[in-house]
């Protein structure tokens, strides 16, 4: 008989662990209490647990991503797979961040949570947790994924697209990797084993800001952001461009910025299909003049966290950041 697979559950809080308080739902259950709601899973695998934090994921921050990575790294040799319980609100940021911080992992790192607390009768939490542990225990699973409502999504492609429904997450500009039906994992994209050794990244530079353009965005705001951050991600309209009234401030600031190794990346507010600055005059010339990087089909969550990791690990080299940004990691960028 095959040995039972060893899984480590890392709990961080979120709705899944929440209880009713005087002021609304609040994380309270710990990792072992979560597991007590799915006792049957221990017949299938050996599950141990640790508590990383117990927060509403609105309070997630890069420092906690580091703690999660260190916890996985410390236990990596002893387990076959890892499941991280997390609030849904920033889960897509965490799944993207971990995709860049835990590289080449032939052991799966699965992130999950729920729309309803695990203690409620009609909850999605028990199924999501069981699915995630089963996926993490399957020998053909690898890399960082988000499992929710039966869907397995590459960590870099997830986006929360429904605030209340059980199908809270979509796989953006890329198909789901697999679906889980009852006990069966149906794989749409079989994942080849990584040939490089697993690599854990701890250094992030979180001096990244996103400017979401609206019709009439004021130049003063752009100037402030340029001066106070190392990296500016512009969430523009459509396929990407800079409005006429911001061009002056862009030209002045970019001249100083480029020589200081700062980064500007163009992304789009449109969820599907991504940017392409070549299409319109408002984009093409700006891209050439400023040597802007472009997010193309990457999600905003992946764009931001990839930049944080590259800025933290490339020693300030603009070329290295640029090369790294366009290199595909965990299926994050394909349409360049
Ligand atoms: N506010 C909660 C959180 O992100 C929402 C959830 O978990 O669904 O922690």
| Total beta-strand segments | 18
By CATH reckoning, the class of the largest domain would read: Alpha Beta
Oligomeric organization of the protein chains: single chain
Bound compounds: aspartic acid
Number of self-contained structural domains: 2
The dominant shape is elongated
Distance between the termini: 47 Å
What fold name stands as the CATH topology of the largest domain?
Rossmann fold
Helix- and strand-based class?
alpha/beta
Query: Quick one: CATH superfamily of the largest domain?
Result: L-asparaginase, N-terminal domain
Mean pLDDT: 93
Q: Secondary-structure map with pairings?
A:
Elements: E1 6-13, E2 18-21, E3 24-27, H1 31-35, H2 41-44, E4 46-55, H3 62-75, E5 81-85, H4 91-101, E6 102-103, E7 109-112, H5 125-137, E8 144-148, E9 151-154, E10 158-160, E11 169-171, E12 178-181, E13 184-187, E14 199-200, E15 208-212, H6 219-228, E16 231-236, H7 244-259, E17 263-268, H8 281-290, E18 293-294, H9 300-313, H10 318-325
Parallel strand pairs: 1-4, 1-5, 5-7, 7-8, 15-16, 16-17, 17-18
Antiparallel strand pairs: 2-3, 6-14, 8-9, 9-12, 10-11, 12-13
The protein binds aspartic acid.
The site of aspartic acid (ASP) has 10 residues, from loops.
Folded structure, characterized:
It is a single chain. With 336 residues, this protein is of the alpha/beta class. It has two domains: 196 residues, Rossmann fold, CATH 3.40.50.1170; 118 residues, Rossmann fold. The chain is 31% helix and 24% strand. The chain has ten helices and 18 strands. An eight-stranded mixed β-sheet has the order 4-1-5-7-8-9-12-13, sandwiched between helices. A four-stranded parallel β-sheet has the order 15-16-17-18, with helices on both faces. It has a two-stranded antiparallel ribbon with strand order 2-3. It is elongated, with a radius of gyration of 21 Å. The N and C termini lie far apart (47 Å). The mean pLDDT is 93.
